[in-house]
Predict the structure.
Amino acid sequence: MQHHSPEQDIKIVVTGPYNAGKSEFVQRFGDKPINVAVNGTTVGMDFTHEMIDDFHVHIFGTPGQDHFKDVQQCVAKGAAGIIMVVDSSDPATFGQVETLTKRIKAVCGRVPIIICANKQDKTGAIAPEKIKQMIGFKGKVIGTSAVSGAGTKTSIVEVLKQIRKEKGM
Ligand SMILES: Nc1nc2c(ncn2[C@@H]2O[C@H](COP(=O)(O)OP(=O)(O)OP(=O)(O)O)[C@@H](O)[C@H]2O)c(=O)[nH]1
Ligand SMILES: [Mg+2]
């Protein structure tokens, strides 16, 4: 069993619009990921944990549906970093990112945030750089495919890097 001091535990929240691929993203990590879902949609949370770069990273996924606002905030509370997952093939949902960011930051504070331009494997997926422009996002946008796992580890490592920089860890 690996021993670590409490300050090496880091909570990261994976959020985003409905159906963006948040649960699929969380499933790529750890040995026994949990998903509390009904008929394929998250009604509770996703959870997993994994040692990454000597940190014990706790990854929490929120529901996406707007009527689970309170659950989103419950799940996100106290996270040290945010991963905003969007469906790159569904630009109609990009407008939700701003509201969702505000909602999550209200319970986490001004912590590092990156966007995952997910479903890059789909034909017609919009490129990460284009999505960055469309959303008017200042931070890092990383292309991912949560089904294949492409870019998912890179995304966690990036947000971890930003958290460590901010906290001077
Ligand atoms: N092609 C493709 N499909 C994906 C990808 N990520 C997720 N999906 C599919 O998109 C659908 C929704 O994925 P979920 O992971 O359940 O999405 P979610 O964001 O957790 O959805 P809610 O919890 O309902 O908000 C599922 O059918 C996934 O298999 C991806 O990268 N590529
Ligand atoms: Mg889900």
Observations:
- The chain is about 30% helix and 30% strand.
